[in-house]
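re: ur question from earlier - yeah i can do the single chain one, its not a big deal. heres the input i used so u can compare w yours
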Amino acid sequence: MRKRRKVFLALLVCMSCLLSACGKAGGETNIDQNTEQNQTDASEEKDIRNDIQEVQEYVQPEMKGEITISCLSENEFLSAAAKQFMDLYPDVTITINASEAGTVEEYQTYLNTRIMSGKAEDIIFNSFLPMAKYSEMGVFEDLNKYISMTPEFNDENYFMNVLQAARQDGGEIYMIPYMASFSVIGFSDGLLEGQTDIRSTLETWEKAGFSQSVNLVRQLVTETEKKNVFLIHSNELSYTNSLLGDSLEKFIDVEERKVYLDNTEYIDLLNAVKELSAQDLFGSNVSFYNEDYSFAISKDYDVQAAYYCLAQDSDQTYCMPLMDAKGNVVINANYCIALNSASGNKDLAWEFMKYLLSEDVQTLPSLHGLAVNRQGFEASVARYHTFYENNNSGIEEAEYGALLAGWMEQVNSCDLVDPVIWDLLNAENEKFFSGMQTAEQTAKNLQKQIDQYFNE
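and the output i got, formated as C-alpha cells:
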C-alpha cells in the first residue's frame, strides 16, 4: 500500500506539471488568474511534498561495517558505549581516534588537515572546535532528516528543546548534545535581608542575565556594614567574559562576520571592570577556610547550583539559569556530536549517534552531566543527589530533580561562538588587565585580529 501511494503522489506531481504547461500554451490569460493559479499549484505541490515526507520512514541499514570517531581525548562514557554497541552488532567495528595532540590548537590543526583531505572521521565530537565555521564550510550533515525519522525522539523520552538547542536560524541542525551543561545565577540570602524591593523583583524572574543581576545587587555590597562582602567570586578576565557572553553580538556579529570592538563602549567596559577590581569587589583571593565572607551573586554550574540553592545551610537563594541578552538559556557546545557530511557510512554512523542518546547509554554512571534522555536524566539526578547528600542536608531527591528539570526545560540555544574568538579576546584582555597595554590598544588589536580571522 505504501509503494502504491508513493507512485500515486508522483503521478500527481507529473500531472500538475503537465497542466501548468498547458495553461501557459493556451493563449492570453488574465495576470491575476495566472497568479492565483500559480499560488494554488504551489500550495498543492507543497501539500504533496509534505505528504511524501510524512510517509517516508527511516530504514535501519545493514548493521555491518566500520564507524570512525574523532575526539580530543577518549573518555570512559564513549568507550563504554562503543563496546556495548559492538556487542549488540558483532559485525560493526567502532574506531575511536582520540587525538594525541597535546593542545586544543594542535587538535584543530590535525582535524582541519583530515577534513581538507576528505579523511575526517564519520562522527566528530566537539572539543573546543570552530563548529560554526565547519558548518558554513559544509563539513557537517544537517540532522533534521534523521531526527524527524526517529520515532523515539519525542518529548516523552527526551528533552527535545535540549536535543534541538543547536538549531540555526535557517532551521539546520548540525550538532546534537548528548548532555546539557549551563550556568546558573544565585543570590545571597543573607545580603537580601530587609531588601524587599529586590526580593520582589527576583521573585518575578525565571532566568537572569549577568549584567542584569550585577546591576540589581551591586548596592548590597556598597551599602552593607558587613566585612568581607564582595560582588562575586571571580577575577577580571572571567568577569569580562561573563559580561561579553551576556551580549557578545553588540561587539561581534559572528553570522555577518563583522567586528565592533574598536569603540568607546568596549573601552569603557574594560575600564569599568578594572575599576571594580581596584575596589576589591571580586573576592578572588578569599580564603574559604579562614574568613567569614559573602558574595552578592554566584555563578555556578547546574547540578551543584541546584543542590546548594536547596540546602538550608547555604546562603544561596533565587537560583535560576543564566540567560543572554536575547533571553536564551544557552548550553555548552562542547558536549555535542556531529555527522561528517563526507562520510560514506552516514546511516550506520547515525545508528551509533542515536545509540549514544539511548537509555542504555545515557544512564551510564560515566556520563558526567545532565543527560538529554529523560531516563538518563533521572539517573543523573540520582547520582548527583547521592554525591551531594554526603553533606546530610536532608534534601529530597524528587525536589532536587524537579528543580533541575525545570531549568532544563528552559534551554533553547547552544553556544556556537568559535572558541578561537574567545582565545583572541582572552589573550588581549589579559594584556590589558596585567598592565601591558591600554584599553584603547586592546580594542584596536582585537578589532584587527578578529576581523582578519573572519576573512581568512
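The radius of gyration is 26 Å. not sure if urs matches, ping me
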